[in-house]
């Protein structure tokens, strides 16, 4: 009974918000925390429902591969949303399918950047059919990308295979069915190379990343700089851009918890010190 839980959790969540807001009050544009749609959950419940992405070891980004990402000076601000190649924020509801939503978001954008119409593709298809994952019980974006890459499966539109927020049987489509496949993907650990990560974003489109989102339960806006760590990844999201115009440069991160969460469905995460482990496992898709 969530109502009972809500009443019981009132003082708990207020204590949590006070703690999160009080530690770094002197910093500009630090994130602020408060009551949102997840406040009624205890942190353990929140983790069990929403933080279901499995961390993946990505190859270390090294000097040998640097040649593949040309080093040009970064713009102060860049956001793929302004090019109209990022779909609206989706809502995974109580399905732990963030890993599928992040990958599908990257595929949608990659095709739109190539000039195809921007369309919502089916996250449910990935949840049901990506055989090396656990559907709404969690998964890894890297194993979903590997599955897409090996099978060359075509993702169909969300309207043809709508999201049900629960696991279902995989529906197969004939090879003549129109859809969107990927040609390849890369994954890197950019943990001390966030400028190179920004170059990869400019070059390839929005990036799939896995973060520690344990404090995001109460996030309302501002730039996340604390209360999360690297090496504890549990949630997959999509980085669509960055902004270095203010005193704290930050990544622009699309979440899959609906547009009423955070900054209209987005989070802002401080750049250049691997905040929340945002640079530990970064993937780009090629179509």
From TrEMBL:
GO terms for molecular function: cysteine-type peptidase activity. The keyword Signal applies. Its main location: other. It comes from Chinchilla lanigera. It is found in: Lysosome. The keyword Protease applies. It catalyses: The recombinant human enzyme hydrolyzes synthetic endopeptidase substrates including Z-Phe-Arg-NHMec and Z-Arg-Arg-NHMec. This is Cathepsin O. The gene is CTSO. Its EC number is 3.4.22.42.
């Amino acid at each position: 009974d969530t109502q009972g839980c809500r009443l019981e959790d009132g003082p708990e969540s207020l204590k949590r918000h006070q703690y999160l807001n009080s530690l770094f009050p002197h910093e500009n544009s630090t994130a602020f925390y408060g009551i949102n749609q997840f406040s009624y959950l205890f942190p353990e419940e929140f983790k069990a429902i929403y933080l279901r992405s499995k961390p993946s070891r990505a190859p270390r980004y090294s000097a040998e591969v640097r040649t593949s990402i040309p080093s040009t000076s970064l713009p102060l601000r860049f956001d793929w949303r302004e090019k109209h190649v990022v779909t609206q924020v989706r809502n995974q509801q109580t399905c732990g399918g963030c890993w599928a939503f992040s990958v599908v978001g990257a595929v949608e954008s990659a095709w739109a950047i190539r000039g195809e119409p921007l369309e919502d593709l089916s996250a449910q298809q990935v949840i049901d059919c990506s055989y090396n994952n656990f559907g709404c019980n969690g998964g890894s974006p890297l194993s979903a990308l590997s599955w897409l890459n090996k099978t060359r499966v075509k993702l169909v539109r969300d309207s043809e295979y709508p999201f049900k927020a629960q696991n279902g049987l995989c529906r197969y489509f004939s090879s003549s069915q129109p859809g969107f496949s990927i040609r390849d993907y890369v994954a890197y650990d950019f943990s001390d190379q966030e400028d190179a990560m920004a170059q990869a974003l400019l070059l390839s489109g929005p990036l799939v990343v896995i973060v520690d989102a344990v404090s995001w339960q109460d996030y309302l806006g501002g730039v996340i700089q604390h209360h999360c760590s690297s090496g504890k990844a549990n949630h997959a999201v999509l980085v669509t851009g960055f902004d270095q115009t203010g005193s704290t440069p930050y990544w622009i991160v699309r979440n899959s918890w609906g547009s009423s969460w955070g900054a209209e469905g987005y989070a802002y995460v401080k750049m250049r010190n691997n905040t929340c482990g945002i640079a530990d496992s970064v993937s780009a898709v090629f179509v």
